[in-house]
Amino acid sequence: MCRWLAYRGGALHPSLLVLDPAHSLVRQSLNSPLGAETVNGDGFGLGWYPIGGDAVGTPALFHSIEPAWHDENLREISRAIHSRLFFAHVRAAAGPPIQQTNCHPFRHGHWLFMHNGRIGGWRHVRRELMLRVDPEFFPLIRGTTDSEVLFHLALTFGLAQDPVAAMRRAVEFIEETGRAHGVAEPFQGTIAVSDGERIWAFRHSSLGTSRTLYVSADLTALREQYPDAERLHAFDPTARVIVSEPLNDLPGAFVEMPESTVGILGPDGYRDEPFLRAAA
C-alpha cells in the first residue's frame, strides 16, 4: 500500500537513502516488488529533525501529491537537508483522496508518525474509532486517512509517556472494534514513530501476514564483511535504517523484522521485542 524508511545516525543528506541506492525509496515508488502495490505514486512526504542545539525540537515536514519519482523539489530538498533522524514515505492511496493532508509522515509536537497498511472495514468502524480520540487531539485531525486516526488514537492512549504501550492499546482497540463489526482482518501494517531521540518501528497484522519490514545490519560488521564496498563509508558507524524493502541487494545488509514485533532504535543501538500476538 505504501513504502517508507526511517533513519537514525550521524547527520547526512536524506538523498543518500531516498534517492541514491540501487533500490532507493524513490525507485520503490515506481517499482516495489515486495509491496502490496507495485507503484506508490500517490504523493510522498519527508519529515526530519533539524540540527541545532542539544534539545530535540519540532520536526519539519515536506509533503507533495506529486509522484516521488517526478518531483524536482524532493531532489533539491533531500540534497540540502542535514539530519540525524528523518522519515520518508511514498503513498499508494487505498480509498482516501490524494491530497497533502493525507500524506505521511504526520506530526504532533516533537513526534513523527507514518504507517503502511490499513484498518480493515474502515467505513464501518471509522466513526467509532474517531469518537474514541481524546477531545484534546480530535481537532488536530486534518486529513481523511485511517493512518492519521491511528496516530491520534496512540496519542490518546499515552504515546508521549510510553510509545509501545500506547500503540499496543491503539491496535488492540482497533482489533476489538473491527471484530465487533465482523471484520476478518481489523489491522494490517507497519508503523514508525519517533520523538527525535528514538525510533519505534512496529510490524503487526491481525492474521499474522504483515507488510514487509527490514532493519539494516550493524555497519561496523558490514564494513568488515565488505571492505571494498565504498558506499558503506559514507555513513557514520551508528547509522541504521528501518525500511519497507531493502535498499540494495548486498547479502546480509538488511534483516527482516519478525511478525508482531517492535524494533527500538536509539542512542544505545537497536533491539526488538514482541509486540502483540496475531489472532489464532
UniProtKB/TrEMBL annotation:
<dbReference type="InterPro" id="IPR026869">
    <property type="entry name" value="EgtC-like"/>
</dbReference>
<dbReference type="InterPro" id="IPR029055">
    <property type="entry name" value="Ntn_hydrolases_N"/>
</dbReference>
<dbReference type="GO" id="GO:0016740">
    <property type="term" value="F:transferase activity"/>
</dbReference>
<keyword id="KW-0315">Glutamine amidotransferase</keyword>
<dbReference type="InterPro" id="IPR017932">
    <property type="entry name" value="GATase_2_dom"/>
</dbReference>
<dbReference type="InterPro" id="IPR052373">
    <property type="entry name" value="Gamma-glu_amide_hydrolase"/>
</dbReference>
<keyword id="KW-0808">Transferase</keyword>
<feature type="domain" description="Glutamine amidotransferase type-2">
    <location>
        <begin position="2"/>
        <end position="280"/>
    </location>
</feature>
<protein>
    <submittedName>
        <fullName>Class II glutamine amidotransferase</fullName>
    </submittedName>
</protein>
<dbReference type="Pfam" id="PF13230">
    <property type="entry name" value="GATase_4"/>
</dbReference>
